[in-house]
Amino acid sequence: MTAAPTPNGRADLAALAARYASTRDDRWAPVPEALDRAIAADAALAEAGVRARGGLLAEASRRLAGLVGREVLARYAPALLITPRERFVLPEDIAASSEDTPALLDAEGLATVSAPHAYLLSYGLLGLGEGDHLVELGTGTGYGAALASHIVGPEGRVTSIEIDPALHARAARLLAEPGSHGPAPITLLCGDARDLTAGVLAAAPREALVEVTVTYALAETPEWLLAALPDGARLVAPVGREEEQILLRWSRDRGATRRSVHGSVRYVAERR
Known about the structure:
Shape: globular
Largest sheet: 7 strands, mixed
CATH architecture: 3-Layer(aba) Sandwich
CATH class: Alpha Beta
Low-confidence stretches: none
Mean pLDDT: 94
Structural class: alpha/beta
Radius of gyration: 18 Å
CATH topology: Rossmann fold
């Protein structure tokens, strides 16, 4: 299920999204289950979303030029096109869901659905591919896990940890809907990633390549996380405070840890 951008793709998406944008008095209130189900079942909205995401792919490709290889973008493009981002944002933001920008999930700005290119950049730096086991710290509403499940395929798996019980609950609901994600199984955990990640990594099958991505900014080098990385694993995380964040990549090889720097970024801060 892929589609090229059309001149009116985003206009069609916006027109269909209007039916959901004015259904709630408070955009920051929890999204009712019935509303999420209605959005997931809207076939016309889904088709408009696919057409509109042709433009999203073009935007993300421009932003990622020189940061990840063309072959990586080509490999990830189907996942970006098919994953229904309109389901994972707030109903009021569906019209903008095909834009390569983050979408707020709360009034305080503590949680977002990151810009799509940010997920692809992290996955590209990890070398995420078929059969891998992705461990994601910061589920949000589940969009990143949904993308990754297409990329790692039926032989891979995705495990995602979310500290916010309300976000965890909505992610579980959204990812249970047909067509929300790819063939890889997704396991969602609720709790503090600092408490749960070591156990997840220790239990990961040794035949799978383990990749770890962090979707929020860590204030400092995550020694607690590096200590838990199994041999052969890779980790990508933004580190720093406010406007001084940089994207870092670590790899563990025969007991040695290597680090590389991949530019300035801006993510929401870790929640404790």
